[in-house]
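Budget justification aside, the reviewers requested a transparent look at the raw inputs and outputs of the sequence design task funded under Objective 1. We therefore reproduce one unedited record. The lines immediately below are the structure tokens for a 248-residue chain.
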């Protein structure tokens, strides 16, 4: 029960890394606040965790909705504030830039960058005031590299890495830690957000090629647990995690 008494907010908690992280941190005694857009998924997970003795709250919200995220922040402050934010929500509708899928570019910018900032803004002032807290941003190996047909997605993840490191430097004086976790290929719903049929098929074929085991959401959840349970003077600033088979 390494997180007994800690209040944790997880965005994108309805599936994948967010769901796995919620399960693991709840096992470790955390009060977990689950947020995502899909109420049915959140309620099912909340029922499961509550049945195991965890204290769970849900917030049905789109992270790209600035006003809604501010309202969530107010409710979390009334709950006593958040000790740990797991900024996990994201989307990845890949396409060549020449295809001009501007709506998809804007969606990635709104969710992957603005959503991260809105969540930070909702809890960071309270952390700074209490002189304690931890913000964990789940970005991607794409924060370090670029790939064809992933220009905008990589751009958003590079932004998250830059935001994370800048925030880390600013937050030191408040005793607030910041970690950017950068997973490689993980078995989640993320490739399903690719609406370009040819690219979606190519990505899935590459990820799920026979004999090429990729990461599981639980692998990243254990990484999250590792970074948030370090002593207060230890800040794991970045953590890059790839499946063994992944070269780039």
């Amino acid at each position: 029960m390494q997180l007994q008494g800690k209040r944790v907010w997880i965005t994108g908690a309805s599936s994948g890394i967010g769901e796995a992280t919620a399960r693991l941190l709840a096992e470790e005694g955390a009060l977990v606040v689950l947020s995502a857009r899909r109420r049915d998924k959140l309620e099912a997970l909340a029922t499961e965790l509550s049945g195991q003795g965890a204290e769970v709250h849900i917030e049905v919200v789109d992270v790209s909705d600035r006003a809604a995220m501010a309202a969530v922040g107010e409710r979390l402050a009334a709950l006593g504030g958040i000790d740990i934010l797991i900024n996990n929500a994201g989307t990845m509708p890949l396409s060549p830039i020449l295809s001009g899928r501007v709506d998809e570019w804007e969606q990635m910018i709104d969710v992957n960058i603005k959503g991260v900032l809105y969540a930070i803004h909702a809890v960071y002032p309270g952390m700074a005031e209490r002189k304690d807290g931890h913000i964990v941003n789940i970005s991607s190996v794409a924060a370090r590299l670029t790939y064809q047909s992933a220009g905008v997605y990589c751009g958003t993840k590079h932004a998250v890495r830059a935001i994370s490191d800048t925030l880390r430097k600013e937050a030191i004086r408040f005793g607030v830690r910041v970690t950017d976790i950068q997973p490689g290929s993980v078995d989640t719903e993320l490739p399903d957000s690719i609406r370009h049929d040819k690219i979606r098929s190519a990505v899935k074929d590459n990820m799920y090629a026979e004999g090429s085991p990729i990461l599981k959401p639980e692998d990243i959840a254990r990484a999250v647990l590792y970074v948030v349970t370090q002593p207060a003077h230890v800040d794991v600033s970045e953590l890059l995690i790839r499946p063994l088979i992944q070269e780039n």
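The chain has one domain: 7-232. The CA atoms of residues 165 and 240 lie 14 Å apart. Computational costs for records of this kind are itemized in the attached budget.
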